[in-house]
Amino acid sequence: MPFLGQDWRSPGWRWVKTEDGWKRFEPFSPALENKNNQLNDISHAVILTGDEDEDIYTTEDCEFAAKKRKKDHCRNNTNSQCFYRENWIYVHKESTRERHGYCTLGEAFNRLDFSSAIQDIRRFNYVVKLLQLIAKSQLTSLSGAAQKNYFNILDKIVRKVMEDQYNPRLIKDLLQDLSSTLCILIRGVGKSVLVGNINIWICRLETILLWQQQLKNLQMNKQVNNGLTLSDLPLHMLSNILHRLSDGWDIITLGQVTPTLYMLSEDRQLWKKLCQYHFAEKQFCRHLILSEKGHIDWKLMYFALQKCYPIKEQYGDTLHFCRHCSILFWKDGGHPCTASDPNTCLMPVSPQHFIDLFKF
User: Fold this and answer.
1) pLDDT tens digits for 78-137?
2) Mean pLDDT of the residues in the chain
3) Which of 101, 104, 158, 181 lies 20 to 30 angstroms, CA to CA, from 175?
4) Count of CB atoms within 10 A of residue 133's CB?
5) How confident is the model over 259-308, as pLDDT tens digits?
6) Which of 73, 76, 204, 88 is nearest to 149 (CA)?
């Protein structure tokens, strides 16, 4: 007869082996209390406007969410990314005699330690892009634990940007897509696809609005440096730096630093090479934009083509997939490969390819 009582082993807790025996691991986040105080200052009235109707979540609707906020954030701040000894995962899409079930997107998201990856500047943009793709279409496919992990990582990303002031534009785009998705899910879909109480999701939306406001008020610190600066470099070196940038917005941003950089950032050849790098010649013919002098305006063409076609993505480091072992992993972490020459089996995985790996 099965035992139906509470499991004495307390499933869900994490235990750490010490010299005195096993002890329960209870991490504490010093920022939790400050974060809760900030959230309490936010109005609990979230207005979500649609095309035909308007749903208003008032203070009365969020009363339960306010009571559960502290409990929810306590759970979220337990670093639920689940510490695994191996930072790799076997990708299997069907059951076999040896393996039952299949690997899900949420499981891979938990196992691959994205929380530590954001601390590596080579992987930061890669993780942010992956979170943005999940926010657009795959948020509801994550398990409850993976969703908590998702928002934990997002919280760490926002705090890193606020401290280091690194690439805030990328995070603003991510939060905008995520807030739009949550508005649609809460207003139009609701409990049918959202894991957990809908009031918890309203709290998460409020948190996103708080993050957006913080990034909006972010002031870039002026660095005082008595050494060599960009202005001291010769023109050919400044031009070489601009030609190595693969994002048009980065070129525009760098051109706002000094008048010299602005002059170099408006070079037609610079934008022509950028268009040729990202797009094919057939695409040029469909979106020709001429200047007043009758020349092709490559700068305007770049942004016009960007709206119609995807640009090539460049990342300092990405996940890799071993075709021999069917294992997804970070390259510097390695994996137990049985191939005679593992390097010939490796394939870099873009953020979109990572999503596609777990579509069934």
Assistant:
1) 444 444 456 788 887 666 666 555 678 888 888 888 888 898 888 999 999 999 999 998
2) 77
3) 104
4) 17
5) 999 999 999 999 999 999 898 888 877 778 887 777 888 889 898 888 88
6) 76
* pLDDT at residue number 359: 73
d(C-alpha 355, C-alpha 156), whole Å: 22
For residue 295, give Cα distances in angstroms to 21, 103, 298: 76, 53, 9
State the maximum Cα–Cα separation within the chain, in Å, rounded to a whole number.
88
Q: Could you give the C-alpha distances from 215 to 175, 194, 204, in angstroms and in order? A: 10, 27, 17
Where are the domains positioned within the chain? 103-215, 246-306
How far apart, in whole angstroms, are the C-alpha atoms of residue 130 and residue 123? 11
Q: Which of 65, 63, 66, 22 is nearest to 40 (CA)?
A: 66
| Residue 64, helix vs strand vs coil | helix
Amino acid in the structure at residue 126? Y
Q: Which amino acid is at 345?
A: C
190: left (phi over 0), alpha (psi -120 to 50) or beta: left
Buried b (16+ CB within 10 A) or exposed e, 290-320: eeeeeebbbbebbebbbeeeebeeebebbbb
Residue 102: per-residue pLDDT: 62
- Looking at per-residue pLDDT, the higher value among 88 and 157 belongs to 157
Three-state DSSP state, 79: coil
The one-character DSSP state at 312 is P
Q: Which stretch of DSSP H or E encloses residue 189?
A: none
Distance spanning both ends of the chain, measured CA to CA = 38
Own/partner contacts of 319-322, CB < 8 Å, gap of 24 or more, are 319/112, 319/126, 319/348, 319/349, 319/354, 320/346, 320/347, 320/348, 320/349, 321/91, 321/346, 321/347, 321/348, 321/349, 321/353, 321/357, 322/346, 322/347
Q: Computed from CA positions of residues 185, 186, 192, 194, in that sequence, does the dihedral angle turn out positive or negative?
A: positive
Q: Is the pLDDT of residue 171 over 90?
A: yes
